[in-house]
Each structure stands twice: as structure tokens, then as C-alpha cells.
Amino acid sequence: MKRLVVLLLLLIAIGVGAYKFWPRHGGESQPGVAVNFDPRGLTGDEQAAFLPLVCGGAAAGSDGYAHNCQSLPGYPSQDYGGAGMGIGITLTDVIYGHLTGADADEAYVSYQGSFEPHATNFGGGILFHKNGNGWVLSRWYPGGAMEHCLSLNPQGRARFLCLYGYTGQGETDTSLFLASIPSGGQISLSPVLKASDLRQTLDPNANCGLRKADQAVLLGIDSLVRGGGFATAQVEYVPADKADAACKAKAFANAATQKAVLSLGWDGSSVSISPEMHFAPAEAN
Fold first, then answer.
1. Beta bridge partners of 142
2. What pLDDT does residue 81 have?
3. Of 105, 113, 135, 249, which is least packed with CB atoms within 10 Å of its CB?
4. pTM for the structure as a whole
5. What end-to-end distance do the CA atoms of the chain give, in Å?
6. Strands of 188-197's sheet, edge to edge?
7. Other CB atoms within 10 Å distance of the CB of residue 29
8. Residue 172 — left, alpha, or beta (φ > 0 → left; ψ -120 to 50 → alpha)?
9. Above 60 in pLDDT, residue 85?
10. Percent of residues, the chain, with pLDDT higher than 70
11. DSSP per residue, the chain
């Protein structure tokens, strides 16, 4: 009898552990239970589940990529531009939730790939939908990596606040966007806050042309993390008075910068930012 009781307790403990570890998928959403999640790194079991669906003939990787593939099932082009001798891929993060619809049971895996050009920031995302106890490839989103995102709504169709960055020809741009994953087309992005650092371009004073005398210059958004009312973002900027002096002297590349932490709120439809920093626009309208 004691052995039976011990066995039952062990089975219950294993069941509770599995319940806590695995994200819940499918069925009716329970009030107050989150079904949309932030991105996180993949476990070994998740790598084993998703990789064969998108990487044909997977082998150990090289040149900084976790895996080499012989083919990319479902990829929207057969021209694997930057592949070289092998098609390198690294699956970096996974998001679970109702991604393309309020009842969809899906996963979105971000990746870095040797076959992606600079124009897509060398990566993208892949959508999967649940089929029984397994997953089925839905489609690829080249350029649609979502590693640096926070889920905005725990239930219903998922929306995200994401930090994106891009560097080219001396220009470094970082932005916060509201993002959602469509069933077709590209990731839907609505700008919240944009930063642009032009100090290393051919015209290091280019930031001056977009500002008024009372405006600070936002150079970069360094991080996006949960905290405060919803989230915080650390930024680097040139205060208005310092920007005034540097622009008048045509020496913006040497302007003194400061750091600040912005508090971000979410009311269900829009993002609020405090304190108000009076930043100049990061690009011409």
C-alpha cells in the first residue's frame, strides 16, 4: 500500500512539473491565464521539434551558425543568396500564443541565417501552427526576427512592443514599434519611438537638420525590458542646449551625450512614454 501511495505522489509531482514547464496550447482560454508569451531561448526539445521542419539535411554548423542545412523547406525563394558552401542557420528565440488570430495556436521562431542579406538584418522569423501533438510549418518571414519584443496582451490576438536596430554606412537606427504577425505578408509595424545616430556618416551634422532649437536629439534606444508600469527603455541622447551649441558650431559629432530611462505604459491601444523628452524627429516627414 505504501509503495502505491509513493508511486501516485511521484506521478502527481511529475505532472505538476510538466504543467509548469510547458506552455499551454489549445482549448478555451481561461480568464486571467496568459496564452501569449514573450520571446525566450529555445530548449533542446524545442530545437529538435522545429529544426527538421525548416532545415533539410541538418548537420553541425560552422561560421558561427548552430546548424548547416542542405535545403530550407518552405522558404519563399530558392536563391539562398549568402549561403556559400552551406546554408547556416541558428534558431534564436520562440514565441507562443494566438499570433495571427484570437484562436490560433501558434509558435513563432526567430532565426539568424547565412542566406539572409543585410537588408533583412541577416535574419527573420518562422511561423508554425499546432497540429495534434506536433507542429506544422506555416510560412517564413525574412527580416521579421522578433527576439527583442514584449507581449502586450495576455489573451486574444497577440500584439507586441519590439525594439529593432539597423546599421549601415555609418548610420545606426534603433526604434520601438508596435508589432503583430499577419497570416500573410510582412510583420505589421507601427512606430512608437525612433532614434537615429548619424555622427559616423559622411555628414556628422545631419542630425541637426531635423531639429528645432528646443529639441533634444535621440541617438539610440539601448534596451527594452519589463518593469515599472509595463516596461522601461534606456536611451542615449543629446540634450537640447548641448545640441544647440554643437549644431551652431557644426561639431555635432563631439556633442556631449546623456543616458535616461523612459517609463512605458500600455492602455490596450497605445504606448505612453514618460518623461516627455521633446526629442527631434529621427527622420524627415
1. 124
2. 59
3. 249
4. 0.85
5. 77
6. 149-151, 160-168, 171-180, 188-197
7. 16
8. beta
9. no
10. 86
11. -HHHHHHHHHHHHHHHHHHHHSPP-SSPPPTT-------EEPPHHHHHHHHHHH-BT-EE--TT-SEEESB-TT-S-S--TT-TTSEEEEEEEEEEE--SSTT--EEEEEEEETTS-GGGTTEEEEEEEEETTEEEEEEEEET---SSEEES-SSSS--EEEEEEEEETTEEEEEEEEEE--SSSSPEEEEEEEEEE-TTSS-TTGGGGG--TT-BEEEEEEEEEEETTEEEEEEEEE-HHHHHHHHHTT-GGG---EEEEEEEEE-SS-EEEES---BPPSS--
Quick one: pLDDT at residue 78?
72
76, 102 in Cβ contact below 8 A?
no
Residue type, 209: G
Lowest-confidence segment of 83-92, 193-202, 228-237 by average pLDDT = 83-92
Contact between 279 and 236 (Cβ < 8 Å): no
What is the Cα–Cα distance from 166 to 172, expressed in whole angstroms?
Answer: 6
pLDDT score for 228: 84
9 to 4, 16, 17, 236, 264: CA distances (angstroms): 9, 11, 12, 54, 45
pLDDT greater than 80 at residue 285: no
